[in-house]
Amino acid sequence: MAFDSEPSGISPPVAGILIAVISSFINGSTFVLQKKGILRSRDRGGSYLRDVVWWSGTMSMVIGQIGNFLAYNVAPAVIVTPLGALGVLFGAVLASWILKEHLNILGKLGCVLCCCGSVVLVIHAPKSEAVTSRLELEERLSDPVFVVYALLVVLLLVTLIVRIAPAHGKSNIMVYVAICSLLGSFTVPSSKGLGLAAQDVFGEGPPSGRALVLFLGLLGTLAVSILIQFFFINKALECFSSNMFEAIYYVTFTSTVILASALLFKEWTALTLTDTLAMLCGLTTVCVGVVLLRISQEALVTWKKKEAREKTD
């Protein structure tokens, strides 16, 4: 795909791709630095909230998300989103260097399959219909299909957080991954909706009461979702390797966001047979990659237990 260069400099799509690539590398370092900070604070017997390395990872997350926001505004999402897979691969390399987390051959293959499958899912996902007004957004949010989906997600999140996470979170990586990914069903639509609501709240003329309620509701939903997601990401990093968590999290987060957007913007109506088959292939590839990563994790845990027994003997 070629882009016509502009006399004034780099064309917007090319600039968006460059920003997305840089943001992917920054995002790839996020979990590694946070994990390093958690390990450093654990050795000292203090809180990771006082560790400078952990805070550098947190700032990397903020900068990376700002970069993603800029990239989505100057380049097509179908080009920008697949580049997020670069962060997963870079994170795996960085984790092997900084954290000494070395994936075996199954883990490396699983990581690559997860990235490839996610890219296929994003490329063939139905493109969102343009929502240009607050009234249209309110109509989409009140659609019965999306309301039922949102209620099911909330019910599932409550069950995971209250019942399943305390009992199985530290032994099963999918518990924390599921919580963080399901929250993506609210963070992304809320981010998109805030811009539309803000036009009526802060635009010319007296602000609309309904627009203000919608704006505050979306802002509150976004803030709560991000805070809960941030909390459980760090809970996961305390128990599991950063590169494995990042690979599985990237897959599940991308999948839930695609599903939520498809329901909210009624994108399934434009889904073709070819795209459907391609998405099924991508989903199958992702599932195989996740299974390989799980097998790799179990093998690593078994090896560490065996090594610990040999040291005690």
User: How many distinct folded domains?
Assistant: 1
Poorly predicted runs are 1-8
Task: Please state the structural category.
Answer: mainly alpha
What is the percent of helical residues?
Answer: over 70%
Question: How many angstroms does the end-to-end distance come to?
Answer: 61 Å
Counting DSSP H or I runs of 4 or more residues, the number of helices is 12
Number of strands: 0
| Radius of gyration over C-alpha positions, nearest whole angstrom | 21 Å
So what's the overall shape?
globular
Strand content: under 5%
| Biggest sheet record | none
Output mean pLDDT.
Answer: 79
H/E topology pattern: HHHHHHHHHHHH
Top keywords for this entry?
globular; mainly alpha; 313 residues; 0% strand; EmrE-like; magnesium ion transmembrane transporter activity; disordered N terminus; single chain; 12 helices
Q: How are the secondary structure elements laid out?
A:
Layout: H1 12-44, H2 52-74, H3 77-80, H4 85-98, H5 105-124, H6 134-141, H7 144-168, H8 173-182, H9 184-202, H10 209-239, H11 242-264, H12 273-312
Helix pairs in contact: 1-2, 1-4, 1-10, 4-5, 4-11, 5-11, 5-12, 7-8, 8-10, 8-11, 9-10, 9-11, 11-12
Can you put this structure into words, describing what you see?
Mean pLDDT is about 80; it is low at about 1-10. The chain has helices at about 10-45, 50-75, 75-80, 85-100, 105-125, 135-140, 145-170, 175-180, 185-200, 210-240, 240-265, 275-310. The protein has about 325 residues and is mainly alpha-helical. It is about 80% helix and about 0% strand. Helix 1 packs across helix 10, helix 8 (about 175-180) packs parallel to helix 11 and helix 11 (about 240-265) packs antiparallel against helix 12 (about 275-310). The protein contains 12 helices and no strands. It starts with 11 loop residues before the first helix and ends with a helix. The chain has one domain.
